[in-house]
Amino acid sequence: MSSENIAFSELNLSQPVLNAISKIGYETPSPIQARAIPALLDGKDIVGLAQTGTGKTAAFALPLLSSIDTQSSDTQVLVLAPTRELAIQVAEAFQSYASELNNFHVLPIYGGQDMRGQLRQLKRGAQVVVGTPGRVMDHLRRNSLDLSNLKAMVLDEADEMLRMGFIDDVTWIMEHTPESRQTALFSATMPKEIRRVANTYLRSPEEIKVARESTTGSNIEQAYWMVSGTNKLDALTRILEVEPFDGIIMFVRTKTATVELAEKLEARGYSAAAINGDMNQALRERTIERLKNKSLDILIATDVAARGIDVERVSHVINYDIPYDSEAYVHRIGRTGRAGRSGKAILFVAPREKRLLYSIEKATGQRIEAMKLPSGDTVSAARIDQFLQQITDVVNSEEDMSFFEELLAKYSRENDLEPEAIATALAYLLQKNRPLQVKFADIKPERERSRDRGERGERPRRSNRGPEEGMKRYRIEVGRNHGARPGDIVGAIANEAGLKGRSIGQIKLFDSFATLDLPEDLAPAQAKKIASLHVRGQQLSLSEDRGPMRKGGDKGKAKPRKRKA
């Protein structure tokens, strides 16, 4: 079955699910969706070999939601995910796809989150539970998670769970689920340990393998900014101040957001309009024509509303909301760089959406560079340049300005004022509501930046600078040579040691080890748990950091003396 000649409406999904994805803008399934959805609807077990970003969440969520019994509050679907970030994303996707289902509840459960809140929510009931292995095991041992009526189980990113040392936990959980359950296993690769799980716990699974197809044009410059939600609009307006753009298509996830963002940008003086699925065809065409004839500069759209838009003057695509899969990202940024022109794509990424950023990079085979938010001085310089250019344009125009010359000459004589003084007053009147000199507070905290730098691949230098007040520096025996990322370390510790992510300080990766800052009052039991954890197949072996090596650098020739935690 090919995704090129089939629509979601032909896949026998339930009508509420079809209504929900129609509102989102989904029309044609991706290759993994076109093959996995019919198999899961038929009750088959499947093994899906697919990279993150190919649309695999919808591939299992849509068919499983189509068979959910919302009259029962029993847990009917369990999804295991390697990290809390992925668990949250999968839960949000289920909630979005179930927007037309009444009495539906999905619950993400993971370490570092208040256990009491999870216990209350589980007692109320959730038809779908998405969790990390450690926290799911905790609830099964407490008997707070009842899987006796489980219909289906999903192992998402199974190879990642293997690399993080969770595979034994996964098999323990599977042994505590009904044998009659349906199982879907998704993995980017198929190491022998994952193949053994599939052979042991899945029943004659149908194997579905899809290749990456996403590509982006080399004439499109791509950049991202790691944004904090409360400052998102402020960050956007800063960027618009300094980016020399012609036309912009800006993508958001919902129809409501198109209208809200357009109104906010218009209030800030930008020529902006919304386009979404609620607009009739005539109004949609008029709005696009305004973008073409330059009476409109910014179009805020959903994915479905932007389908088919081909406007050469679009110099920028801004992903105000990151898309859930790489295919959507490729389609979005393809709206710029048309007719051989160059274009620029800017992506806003919330900290918990970093996995989506990595999946887009992996699927497209292109690195997206971090961008620096324009400073107050940069915005001031841009405003001054624009202001002086306006003066130049008027001076060089053929407009008849004799009336103003006579008026201001008379005013100068009567008030004994120099022309410069009058020009200064006029400039102030013109710009007082949009000052040429602006100052901004730094939106992004330094701690967040330092963690991003490590995660984006820059090699840090070992320094003697100590941790922040209230923190203590430790060493763990996993590093770049093992393929580790700060996100892996944070995910493992937060999921399994009951330590909140925000309590984990700066992480610096080196070739064979890493340093991280943890609270000074770290409990011995937590330290022992962290020391036993595995990341990328390596035991962390937590120990107090003793500073830089005196010999051998970071090559494993010499290690500092360490004390076991």
TrEMBL record:
Coiled-coil blocks: none
InterPro entries for the chain: CsdA_RRM, DbpA/CsdA_RNA-bd_dom, DEAD/DEAH_box_helicase_dom, DEAD/DEAH_RhlB, DEAD_box_RNA_helicases, DeaD_dimer, DEAD_helicase_DeaD, Helicase_ATP-bd
Region of interest called Disordered, as start-end residue ranges on this chain: 440-472, 536-565
Annotated localization: Cytoplasm
GO molecular function, one term: RNA helicase activity
Biological-process GO terms, alphabetical: cellular response to cold; ribosomal large subunit assembly; RNA catabolic process
GO cellular component: cytosol; ribosome
Sequence ranges assigned to domain Helicase C-terminal in this UniProt record: 232-379
Superkingdom, natural source: Bacteria
Motif (Q motif): 6-34
Enzyme class: hydrolase
UniProt EC number: 3.6.4.13
Keywords of the record: ATP-binding, Cytoplasm, Helicase, Hydrolase, Nucleotide-binding, RNA-binding, Stress response
Catalysed reactions, semicolon-separated: ATP + H2O = ADP + phosphate + H(+)
Helicase ATP-binding domain: residues covered: 37-208
Compositional bias (Basic and acidic residues): 441-472, 543-557
Domain called DEAD-box RNA helicase Q: residue spans: 6-34
Annotated Gene3D superfamilies: 3.30.70.330, P-loop containing nucleotide triphosphate hydrolases
Family: Belongs to the DEAD box helicase family. DeaD/CsdA subfamily.
HAMAP family reported for this sequence: DEAD_helicase_DeaD (MF_00964)
Purpose of the protein: DEAD-box RNA helicase involved in various cellular processes at low temperature, including ribosome biogenesis, mRNA degradation and translation initiation.
Protein name (database record): ATP-dependent RNA helicase DeaD
